[in-house]
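User: Sequence for SET domain-containing protein 4 below. C-alpha cells please.
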Amino acid sequence: MKKSRGRTARKRRRKHLQGFMDGVNCSHKLEYVKLQKWLKERGFEDSNLRPAEFLATGRGLMATKALQAGDLVISLPEKCLLTTGTVLSSCLGGYIVKWKPPVSPLLALCTFLIAEKHAGEKSPWKPYLDVLPKTYTCPACLDHDVINLLPKPLKKKAQEQKMMIQELFRSSKAFFSSLQPLFAENTGTIFNYSALEWAWCTINTRTIYMKHPHRECFSLEPDVYALAPYLDLLNHSPNVQVKAAFNKQTRSYEIRTNSQCKQYQEVFICYGPHDNQRLLLEYGFVAMDNPHSSVYVSADTLLKYSSPLDKQRKAKVAILKDHGFLENLTFGWDGPSWRLLTALKVLGLGADEFACWRRTLLGDVTSARNEQQALDTAAKICQFLIEETQHVLLQISQLKRDKENLKTHLALVEMLRSEDLKILQKSAEILCNLNLATA
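Assistant: C-alpha cells for SET domain-containing protein 4:
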C-alpha cells in the first residue's frame, strides 16, 4: 500500500511540475474575463489561446490545441485595434486637428493612453488598460546606477532614449495645456512626465506595425502603430517564424505560425532577428541563448590594441571610418565577425603592405603575418572584454545586496551581461582553436 501511495504522490508531483512547465492557465482571472468579454463585443472569437503564467517568460498565451505550421494563431478584428484613427474619433480629435505645428502620430497615441487611463471606469478601453503593465523595464525607465552597468554602445542608446522622452515631454507641454477644457483637474498633473514615459513605453514595446495613410493633422513622421489587445500578450522567441499582417479581406490583423506548438505550451511569435541589446532597448527584456546575439567592440577598445608608434595609424583609422568599419564590430557565437577581423587586418598592415588596404577591406589575404596578427589581437580584445564583463557582474551582485529597490532592473542587466560572457567565452575558445590550427 505504501509503495502505491508513494508512486501516486510522485505521479501527482510530476503532473504538477509538468503543469508548471507548460504554464498556469489564468483565463479565469477577472481582468482576463473582462478583456475576453470586451473583445467578443468587438467581434473577436478565439479558441486557440488562453492567458497563462509561465516560469521562464511570465505572462503569455498558451495553446489550447496543438498548432501546425501554417495554422492561424490569432485573427484580431480592426475594431479591437487602437490606432491614430481611434484617437481622432475620440474627444481629443478636434484638438489634434486644430493644433499647430501638427503633433506626431506617436504623441497622439501617448496622449490618448494617458487620457483614457485617467478616465478610469468611464473609459471604453478600460478592460485593455487594466491588463497593460503598470511599469516597464526599457532603458529609459532604468535608474542611473543601472544604466552605467550596460555595455558602452547600449549605455549611449539608453541615455539617448531617456533624452528623447524628456524632449518629447518638454515640447508637448503647450499641446497638453490646450486640452484643459476636457478635464476638471489641471492637465499638468494628468499629463506629467511619468505618465508620458509609461505611455511611450507602452507604444514602443507593444505596438504592431501597421501602415496608415498620412493625414494632414499629423506631422510627417510615419504613422505605423497599432496597439493590439490580447495579441500583445504573445511573447518573443528568436527560434520561431510567423507571418503577421493586416488582412484587408477579413479586416483583421492575422498571425500565422510557421512552427509547430504542442497543446498547453506557450505560443511564441518573433519580433525580428534582434540581438539582446536591441531587445532590451526596444522591448525591455533579454532572450536566453539568443542565436542573433553578439557582443559589440567599441571603436575605443579596438584602437587601444593598435600600435601608437605606427606612422600610418591615423590614415588607417580614417580609412576604417570612411568605409564604416568602426561600427558593428562584434563577437558572436561563431567567434569574431568578419568586420572585426577586417578592421584588425587594416590596422595591422605593415608599412610595405599599406598600399593593399583596399584589397584587405574586400577580404583578400595580404600576408600570413597580417592574418595571424589579426587573430592574436582579436583574442586579446576578447580576453579584455571577458574580464570587463566579469567585473561588471561582480558589481551587479554587490548592488543587488545593497539596493533592494533596484533588484528587478539589476537582474535584467545581469542576464544581458551573463549572455555576453557566454558569447565571449565561446569566441575565446574558437580563437584558441584557430590559433592552434595555424601554429
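The chain has 17 helices and 13 strands.
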